[in-house]
Amino acid sequence: MELLKVSGVEPEIYRTEKVKCDEEGNYLHTITMDTGDNLPLLVMIHGYGGTGLIFFKLFKELLKHFRIVTIDLIGMGGSS
Which among 23, 45, 59, 79 has the fewest CB atoms less than 10 Å away? Predict the structure, then answer.
């Protein structure tokens, strides 16, 4: 989460979550960012071998226009 600290996004704006996918215990790691301004939702999904944090330099500017959810695909990033 060090990249979130250098992204300029205030800690109270984001939350991380492990979303259960199946009965075997697999989960998706997500980061949700919301300024509370009722903006449109932008879902960001990385490419192969990445993580949602790859977009960290974009977060601060995008939060002016969107609520953001990043999803780490299964087997990558913080997901199982």
Answer: 23
**46's tokens:** 């990385």
Does 80 map to a domain? no
Q: What is the DSSP letter of 39?
A: P
Strand 14-20 to strand 67-72: parallel, antiparallel, or no bridges (unpaired)?
A: unpaired
CA distance 2 to 20: 24
Note the pTM of the prediction, 2 decimals.
Answer: 0.91
Burial 54-63 (b: 16+ CB within 10 A, else e): bbbeebeebb
Question: What range defines the domain where residue 37 resides?
Answer: 2-72
20 lies in a domain? yes
Sheet with strand 27-33: strands edge to edge: 14-20, 27-33, 67-72, 41-45
In the chain, which ranges are continuous DSSP H helix? 2-6, 59-62
